[in-house]
User: Fold these one by one.
Assistant:
Number 1:
Amino acid sequence: MMYKAGDKFQYNNTGFVVLGLIIEKVTGTSFDDYLRQNVFLPAKMMDTGYYELDRLPERCANAYIYDEDKDEYYTNIYSVDVKGTGAGGAFTSVIDIQNFWKNLLGGKLVSQDMLNKMMTPQSEEDYGYGLWLRKINDDLYYPFFEGEDPGVCFVSYYDLAQNLCITAISNHASDVWELLEDVLEEFK
């Protein structure tokens, strides 16, 4: 650990890889199977999963990296893990993310007590448990989560007051965060 518990927050991919390994040890099942059975299927996320890059299912997009020197795109298969881990790498769709929010906020994936903890800042960096939090005012935060790897980036934000889910996914590393800010401006 870099800091004493409760002193400071520092996001760390390795912590989520270890969390995935703990889930496997405790449940006796693979991390991706556990998530499929306990999150993806109950939340009706039918196009979400952890897939090997050389075995992508139908309707699943490859990710691309732009090579400025050659002025062309190439797939990211040599730039990321062959299969995702607890730190990320799931394939998903905008519809599935909407289903995720609906089920998470509706109390079908975690208890209300846990959801409250997830949506309460645990550090000065506005991070809850597993969710980033965008400060609206002193007492109100809206949840979002994000991720990126070479050739892919993702952000999903939930405006609780308007019951509005905004999700941007790119399979060629577009600036989804700028797009999110532009969309949020339209809804002010």
Note: Residues 13-27 form the longest helix (15 residues).
Number 2:
Amino acid sequence: MGTFGRIYYNIFMYPFEKILLGRIRRNLMGKARGNSLEIGFGTGVNLKYYDFEAIDSIILLERNMIKGVSVTDNKKVSVMEGDVMELPFEDNTFDTVIFTLVFCSVEHPERGLSEMRRVLKDNGHLIFIEHVVPEGKTMKKIAGSVNGTWSSMSNGCNLNRDTVSAIRDAGFHIVESDFSRKGVFVSGTAKKRRPEAFGVENQLS
């Protein structure tokens, strides 16, 4: 995201971060366990909410790294450049995969979610916070009408994504979810569905 894109995005998100997202991050990030992966860590805002007693290691992955920026000196944390649509990890690597406010701008969400499912262990957990298409009819219409302009200013961020459905379609079972601020934000956890169940559901859909 370019400089102007970051400015617009930060202005838009600041009030939500102050009155809502900080609390959601605090409730969810503490559930990360074992070997973890965070997709699109940005400025590292989630780091202060992790329980490092429960985390063995965590990789922070960012598509466009800002060179020379130090995120943390915690020895359990490593930083990598990479794309969620082509993760450079073996199958069944991580106990926890985390993404927050990322899939609004992933070009092919289904591919990114499929990759996260691949690298997540069968008994692992997905943790997510996303802004999505609003639930209200009027707000949904507004989001659709301004999405093109907003997306061009914010380097591909979309206001009308249905990320919960995309998570399910990628082969996950939503364990817990919560819609906040009239349905603009969704957060929760998910687990991989069994391969045989995933295959049957895909055939029926």
Note: Helices lie at 3-29, 109-119, 137-153, 163-169, 195-204.
